[in-house]
Amino acid sequence: MEAGIVSYGVYVPRHRITPTEIGKVWGVDGAAMGVGLNVRRKSVPAPDEDTITISTEALRTALARANIDPQQIGALYVGSESHPYAVKPSATVVAQAVGATPTLTAADFEFACKAGTAAIQTCLGLVGAGMIRYGVAIGADTSQGAPGDALEYSASAGGAAFVIGKERVICRVNQTTSYTTDTPDFWRREGQRYPSHGGRFTGEPAYFRHVTECAHRIMELTGTSPKDYRHVVFHQPNGKFPLRVGKQLGFTDEQMHYGLVTPAIGNTYSGAALIGLANVLDHAGPGERILVVGYGSGAGSDAFDLETTDAIAWFEKAYGRSVDYFLENGVEISYAMYAKFRGKIQMAGGE
Amino acid sequence: MSVARFWRETPRRYNLGGSKCTMCGTVYFPPRTVCPECTSHRQSIEKMVPFQLSGEGEVVSFTVVHEAAEGFELQVPYALALVKTREGPVLTGQIVDIEPSAVAIGLKVRATFRKLREEGASGVIHYGYKFTPLEESGSLPVAVSGERNST
Amino acid sequence: MREVAVLGVGQTKFGELWDRSFREIGIEVGLQALVDAKLSSQDLGGLYLGNMASGALIDQEHIAPLILDSVGLIHRHLPAVRVEGGGASGALALHQGYLAVASGLYDFVVVGGAEKLTDVPDETAARITSSAADQEWEVVFGATLPALWALMARRHMHDFGTTREELARVAVHAHEMGSKNPLAHYRNKITVEQVLNAGPVAEPLGMLDCAPLSDGAAAVVLGPMELARKHTDTPIRIAASQVACDTMALHHRREITRLDSTVVAARRAFDQSHRTPEEVQVAEIHDAYTISALVSLEDLGFVKKGRSGPEFASGRFGPGGTTVVNPSGGLKAQGRPFGAVGVAQVVELVRQLRGEAKDRQVPGASVGLAQDIGGTGATTVVHVLERTN
Known about the structure:
The structure holds 3 protein chains of 3 kinds. By secondary structure, chain A is α/β, with parallel strands linked by helices. Chain A has 12 helices and 14 strands. Chain A folds into 2 domains: 4-170 and 320-350, Peroxisomal Thiolase, Chain A, domain 1; 171-312, 3-Layer(aba) Sandwich (Peroxisomal Thiolase, Chain A, domain 1), CATH 3.40.47. In chain A, helix 4 (90-97) links the parallel strand 4 and strand 5 (105-109). In chain A, helix 1 packs across helix 2 (30-37) and helix 3 (51-65) crosses helix 4 (90-97). The termini of chain A are far apart. Chain B is mostly beta strands. The chains are: A alpha/beta, B mainly beta, C alpha/beta.
């Protein structure tokens, strides 16, 4: 297809907390949990940050890098499972904050961790059909795990914004396909603070099945095999699952290297695979083929076969920060501070 | 604050849209309909045009607030500063992403988009500008101003 | 325009007046002032009432006729006007009363100021205090009124080398003076050490750099100088009454370490009264925050720009000094019921100029100056008063 990635930007909040620090509070060997999950630190949003602010910073970065007139954005979608409002879209606030209003369509997406990739597919369709000039797909989250639950060690915050269009494409999308079933591996009911999950059920029947099936499907459609790709990015709820599924599918650690960001910043949910892709693009030269296989609980997988163009060589990344910057930096905080930032402490007034 | 009262200012609070006097060139934020600098100030009515601030500036004074403004309690202690923007206007805003004790006069900053406050657990969320150190966060204009790619 | 004199004064104790309502403190000072001026209710022309926030504090707007009614004077259907200008509301009300008498439209007016800050929780009082700053462009972004003055203090320290110790001396002095004032909210003496170690509010300002939240009321009776002797042996002439305004937001000022509204109001007041700062023996200035007193001393013309810290520390403005500042204890120790402050400043000056200030007396005081500020300096009101005997 003609449409592809024109620009991208990432934002990860500044604070970090380690599994060791979390484990101390719950009487668990946090360091061992960290090793088991292959998560060294996770990002923590400040009290004044949320999915909307993260999305805005990431999108402003993307627009500045490619000098895109926000009035030329025809669609804007924010995919998250931690939208600040249950009803009232994050997308409209972001659209206003980047100056894209009023001539655009906008909506929020939810599909656990694959809301962002679903948004990219939608934008590809709109751009491809000639309905819009540029589409924006954002995957961002400030996800939470229940206190003391395994997810608490990995659920983190961050987001990536992608601008989809046909002009000045830096990474072409050759093919996209999906694999979707009704599989209740991980969910959160309306009004509940924290998600629930099916324990080990989230593994083989959920993550592994969908990622594997979808990866096979896209490689069938494109007539490729793992060796044809310079890079591969998987959804990464922890630092272990993607390495395992990658190996099972026949990919090398080297191919997975740039796409794996969870060990450094935790699982940014709707942001995860997209931040992984952004890291690949930060390091890629022209003509590099990339496979992205996202995953969202509930469950589904969206896959993309991509290839960087010559234009990526002069893509200006002067604005905002590179993914490496977020992976390598961060200020560690205590569990007490983390609990305060994440609203886990019951405040006066019952709110 | 009422829904309408906050919503009305979003083009200023989200986007840092100011104004410029076409007669004397002075830039204003928030925007003005008449120019206080022009000696014949009535003539400047209708001569003011929209002007986009970049959000970049430097700290000209700061304080570390311990007794919070309403809605800012969770952020105590926080740094509040007067930021002189590159284009001229001085704004009042929080400095984030830095230890409050590390803020100094002369610190180069740029605007970023953050939550200002929530009207309780069920009310509207107010967003607006705060400032982050330029060196750490990297340059990022609030809006791409100047030439637009409109081909 | 004819000359105006202060004929009578009244003031409640400032502090936490749990048992007294807004109406009650208004009644008390109104009657005190009328009695002190030996003014018959038949001769009263009207009431001006300074008040900043009665709506937010006691849910009551439209308070001027309420007070007129409460003091039993409603049957003559006199005019009663509320005047508001942030913390300068009382001084502004005085200016309006002065204009009314000077113009000849009324002969005698009562000017009162009152505020009940303890009728709301502390956090609400703090929010109301900040309502005198720019809500849309300062407060919504996290500024409080003390934080804005702290921004001024920080820059003043940066530009002129002013120290926290020099700021602290303002508070120490205020309490020293307040210890001699039976009406003061705080009568305890404090040390520089205590001020420096007090909990931070907005650095560099701490708890003891900031005036308290107080209830209180004050009132004066104004009348034409030509009729003054019928009411008092010691009429005090209002030699100047001037108001100047400036930008609402601190960030829009020409210089953040200078209060242009004070500079201009003072210049106008010294012009009107044909006086200079050197001739002022006693001054009641706006020390809501230690920095506001220091900057005010510079902008009123008592010291050169930037020199207020060392000059204040030298004792020039203390007992025996060239100009005694805030013998009442100021806003810091006497207290800060917003609308009452500006009137109370003049009440103190009148007592000083009459020679009735007892152990607070500034010897030979014949010229006094009162300065009150609204917000961070969007309004300044300056009065110059003179003894006539």
